[in-house]
Write a structure and sequence with these properties.
single chain, mainly alpha, 14 helices, cell membrane, transmembrane helix, transmembrane, Glycosyltransferase family 4 protein
Length: 320
């Protein structure tokens, strides 16, 4: 019953936001780097911080005691991201808020107490890098929602069947938010896009859960629950550096962009393939008893090889 009420509240929140976005012209206009061709409402990913607020309302005492640091970090990064969706902010302002949010996230997960001091800068780099990877990959219909659904579903399975590392509802609520968001986004003509508030918001939540899991188990292999995003972003950044491009400028060099823009493959097909690939990796990752370095090689060598071969063929085909 509780989850049915949550879904209804999330739907109402989305419909209310659509009216606000339409009134104040919060839209995404296509440009030469876009993978879409029509004006669409931006910021639909506001559903993710809303889902956390609803989580707090249904679990008030626990939220105040255990989730206040996560909540402050999530709301801070979502607020600055939403403002950036509406009007462009300087990198310094955004990065400052990101750093504060990551500090709160690491405090929430107990990383400061469990990890030696010298590892803290590494954690900052990894988390901020992963957050930005989430943002970079949010470019076509269904990508952020489906991929996050796979990550969250995998975490829910681990939490229930392998080792309990957090409250079940803390995973279920963002899953419900993804389902409602996909109802409006997983379409040929999306009703809304996630925007930075969505990609950063759900990215922050997923990363928080993975960090909790790693702190609980000391199994660093679980960062590979996001390995498809990781491989795509690292190889694309490497390519752009080799081409002497500014990696902070928008571009269309990601493999999913080449499939969607040049090859004209359906956004929904591309997003589904990415999600299915990550699901297969997660199944192997969760049940494998191999050493971490062997798991990394098994995942990265074939996946990276397939990625490079596909991109090479597409660039050759379209003279890119």
């Amino acid at each position: 019953m509780e989850f049915a009420i949550v879904i209804i509240l999330l739907f109402i929140s989305m419909l209310a936001y659509f009216r606000i976005a339409d009134k104040y012209n919060i839209i995404d206009k296509p440009n030469h780097r876009s993978a879409h061709t029509q004006i669409t409402l931006r910021g639909g990913g506001i559903i993710f911080p809303v889902a956390f607020i609803i989580f707090c309302l249904f679990n008030l005492n626990e939220a105040i005691q255990n989730y206040w640091a996560f909540g402050l970090g999530l709301l801070a990064i979502c607020t600055i991201s939403f403002v950036d969706d509406v009007r462009t902010l300087s990198n310094k302002i955004r990065l400052s808020v990101h750093l504060v949010s990551v500090v709160l996230l690491l405090y929430f997960t107990g990383a400061f107490a469990l990890m030696p001091f010298w590892t803290w800068p590494i954690l900052f780099v990894i988390i901020i890098g992963t957050l930005n990877a989430y943002n970079f990959m949010d470019g076509i219909n269904g990508m952020t929602g489906l991929y996050s659904l796979i990550a969250l579903g995998s975490l829910a399975y681990i939490n229930k069947e392998i080792i309990s590392f957090t409250d079940e509802n803390f995973i279920v609520y963002p899953i419900l938010a993804c389902v409602v968001f996909l109802f409006f986004n997983f379409r040929k003509k999306a009703k809304c896009f996630a925007g930075d508030v969505g990609s950063m918001g759900i990215g922050f939540w997923v990363i928080g859960l993975i960090t909790l899991l790693i702190m609980r188990t000391s199994e660093y292999k679980y960062i590979l629950l996001l390995s498809i995003y990781g491989i795509e972003v690292v190889l694309t950044i490497t390519e752009r550096l080799l081409l002497k491009e500014n990696i902070f400028e928008a571009h269309r060099r990601h493999l999913y962009q080449l499939f969607a823009n040049e090859k004209k493959v359906s956004h929904l097909v591309v997003s589904s393939v990415y999600a299915i690939c990550q699901l297969l990796i997660n199944i192997f990752l969760i049940h494998s008893q191999l050493p971490v370095w062997v798991i990394i090689l098994i995942i990265f060598i074939p996946t990276g090889g397939i990625y490079l071969a596909l991109k090479w063929n597409l660039k050759k085909e379209y003279n890119l």
